[in-house]
Amino acid sequence: FRGPAGTNFADLTNWDSNWRTPSLRAYGDFLLGIGMEEGATSYPTRVRWSDVTLANQVPGTWSEFDLTASSGYNDLVQVTTELIDGAPLGSNFILYSSNQVWLMEQTGSQLVFNFRQLFTDAGVINANCITQVDGLHFVFSSDDIYTHDGTTKQSICDERVKNFVFQNLNNQASDVCFVQYNPTLNEIMFCFQSGDALTAFPNANRCNRAAVFNTRN
Q1: What is the pLDDT of residues 131-142, one digit of tens each?
Q2: In angstroms, rounded to a whole number, what is the distance separating the alpha carbons of residues 190 and 173?
Q3: Are strands 92-97 and 83-89 parallel, antiparallel or unpaired?
Q4: Closest of 29, 32, 34 to residue 57, by C-alpha
Q5: What CA–CA distance (Å, rounded) separates 130 from 33?
Q6: What pLDDT, on the 0 to 100 scale, is given for residue 107?
Q7: Per-residue pLDDT tens for 185-205?
């Protein structure tokens, strides 16, 4: 973490030094660890959340045993592949694996959070492949580019574009994919490594192609 007066990053205070997570995200007054390794044990579908945290401070605890705190965890045993990432959507938080999407919402009770499944036919291809624009999530998955409002999902990738993207996308390099929103141009770039014959950088190790969606027209 780096505090408002800090010049360098430091170890996250009160986070167990034996824990690892591929995705650490903010949701309301909480921090979330999405997919966990705790010591020698992997919990790929675990969501762990911190205690309620004040602005410009780090969480006081992540312990599920502290009865004075709101921290805890939940293992989503119905998720068949590891959790990859997540992002806020309105007052809720959306969790993504490669083939499922789940909604996480605050309950206002001792349970802290409620979890429910949204989609079983969609997911995300990599971390940082989700962006929120105008109350919608735009998502790059392994076989589609789609948007949803937490209830209804719609593909924004037609047959010609979809065939070009997913026939040329290097699935062995899916870990370099990302999504970037440019509000000045009202454009969302779905970036990937392509093997198509027309690309100017055919031997790139990173993204060399983007599918671009204009949110206005």
Answers
A1: 999 999 999 999
A2: 14
A3: antiparallel
A4: 29
A5: 17
A6: 86
A7: 999 999 999 989 888 888 889
| 167-172, Cβ contacts within 8 angstroms, sequence gap of 24 or more | 168/194, 168/195, 168/196, 168/209, 169/193, 169/194, 170/194, 170/195, 171/142
Cα–Cα dist 185/60, whole Å: 41
Cβ–Cβ < 8 Å for 14, 61: yes
**DSSP letter string over 126-177?**
STT-EEEETTEEEEE-SS-EEEE-SS-EEE---HHHHHHHHHHB-GGGGGG-
- pLDDT value at 146 more than 80: yes
Q: By the 8 A CB rule, do 109 and 81 touch? A: no
